[in-house]
Amino acid sequence: MSSPGPLPLPAPNADSAAYWAGAKAGKLLLQRCRDCGATWFMSRHLCASCWSEQVESVEASGRGRVHSFTVIHRAPSAAFAGQVPYVVALIDLAEGPRMLANIVGAGAREIAIGELVRVTFEQRGDGALPQFQRAP
Ligand SMILES: [Zn+2]
User: Fold this and answer.
1) Over the stretch 75-123, which tens digit does the pLDDT of each residue have?
2) 82 CA distance to ligand 1 middle (Å)
3) Which residues pair with 99 in a beta bridge?
C-alpha cells in the first residue's frame, strides 16, 4: 500500500455549514424543527417529519450509546493507511438521532455494543470532527 496521504477534510455546504462551525467550536450540533419538534442528524434544510423549513441548530449533550460498531483493518484509501485498525460505530445520541463516527482514545478497540460514549473533537485541517470516546 502507498504511504498515507492527508485525511479528508470537512467540506461544509449550505446545509452543513452551521454543523461544521459548531464542531470547530467544540459543540455537537443537531437540528430541530420549530414546528413539530423533531430532532435529527445530519443537517438538511427541511424537516423530514413535517416538511417545515423552520429548522434550528441545537447543541447535543454529547452523550450516546453504541448501537453497533466494526473495526476497520484494511484502509479504504491511502489516506487511512496510518489509521488502521480503527473503530467505526453507530452512536445513538441521548437526544435520539443516530450518527456514524469513530471511537477514539483509550480502549477504543475494546468498545462493546450498548456501551456509553461521549463526544470528543478531532482537530483536522482548520476544523474539527466530532468523534466519540468511551465514557468513564
Ligand atoms: Zn417538523
Assistant:
1) 999 999 999 999 999 999 999 999 999 999 999 999 999 999 999 999 9
2) 42
3) 91
Q: Which run of H or E residues covers position 86? A: strand 86-93
Residues paired with residue 124 on neighbouring β-strands, in sequence order: 127
Task: Tell me the CA–centroid distance for residue 46 and ligand 1, in Å.
Answer: 8
CA of 17 to the centre of ligand 1 (A): 20
Quote the ligand 1 centre to 93 CA distance (angstroms). Answer: 19
Output the pTM of the full model: 0.92
5: CA distance to ligand 1 center in Å?
A: 41
**Domain residue limits, the chain:** 17-134
Is the CATH number 2.40.50.840 carried by domain 17-134? yes
For 8-103, where are the alpha helices, taking DSSP H only? 17-24
